[in-house]
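Bit of a strange request maybe. I'm writing a small parser for structure token strings and I need a real example to test against, not something I typed by hand. Could someone generate the tokens for this chain?
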Amino acid sequence: MPRSVLTGLSLAGLCATFVGNGIGRFAYIALMPALIQAGWFSKSDASYLGAATLVGYLLGAPMSGMLLRHYRVGSVLRGAMLACSLSYLACALLGAAMPWYYFWRAMAGFGGAILMVLAAPAVLPQHSPAVRGRVSGVVFSGIGLGAAASGLLIPLLVPWGIASAWLGMGSICLVLTLLTWRQWAPDAPLHPADAQAQPLPAERRVAVGLLLAAYTLDAVGYLPHTLFWVDYTVRELQMPLATGGFLWALFGVGAAIGPLLAGKLGDVFGFKRCLIACFLLKSLGVALPLFGSDVLTLCASSILVGMLTPGIVMLVSTCTLDCVGARQHRRVWGAMTFSFAAAQAAGGYLMAFVAANGQSYRPLFLVSACALLCSVPCIACIRVQPAAKA
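Reply from user aminoacidic:
Good idea to test on real output. This should exercise your parser:
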């Protein structure tokens, strides 16, 4: 097993999360206010299109396991990256019926979920246990890099037409898909004994259940920022689209740094302690818009929530690996991703309804901050030692 953090496979994992979540899931957030202002969609339609991505994510999480029964993991990962690329290219068609856009936004979520479920388990067990935290940070930093790229590029592309923004994001995804096509080699599969793994002992089932509860609450906790943050700053706070894009780029920069920092700190101080600290800080970041709407407060909120959104995903994934071992990591992580997806889909549609019929996004920040605080006791109650790292 390589002890190097930066390998072809870890960088392919970074590209997978960049395409699947950084662009596929999150670039739409930066594009949303421009779509409304340009008359492509109403506020209600744009909100529900964002929620459609979450439904696709919900469907993609369980489908990842089913697809592996018939196809190699490399083929599934390539197909998911290609689906995310095509989802943006297809949405550049102006004047299509709403079901067309719903389908392709759902397809972006579908591909993003598969990449979230499979990329880390395909990469982490192929590296030495001593560097898995940092390798996991590299893989999940792609989420933030993609969000940062969308926040910087979309305001530059929108003046050339909304279609150019769709096409630009889709082209970036397609290029990265082709560049990593050969990295997902047949000789780098998921753990071969994954499907035949023995049932977990009772204490480890409890630990996984507590992780699952915290991770499900996190799905609600991050929704206002990852559905409405740019629209909140541009249309509710009356800021320019460039400012909204800058704040979203800050979210992305934080999200790129977060997994790397969390991975390093997790290797040093332990992943449980880091998770508790991260949930507390993320709750503060989500609540900051309730205390002020000046640019400095919004910047701090963007960076904090950005750092801790993929940072917590990375920590939960690595904690899951510690709890269950490499043989069961993909199966358990897939189930956790499905629960996360179900919570965010339900919460996303409820928040989309509130946003479409309400006067302000601010109550949503309060609900999400409280959900994140409730995650802290779940992590604090975990009492198991790491499983043997096969």
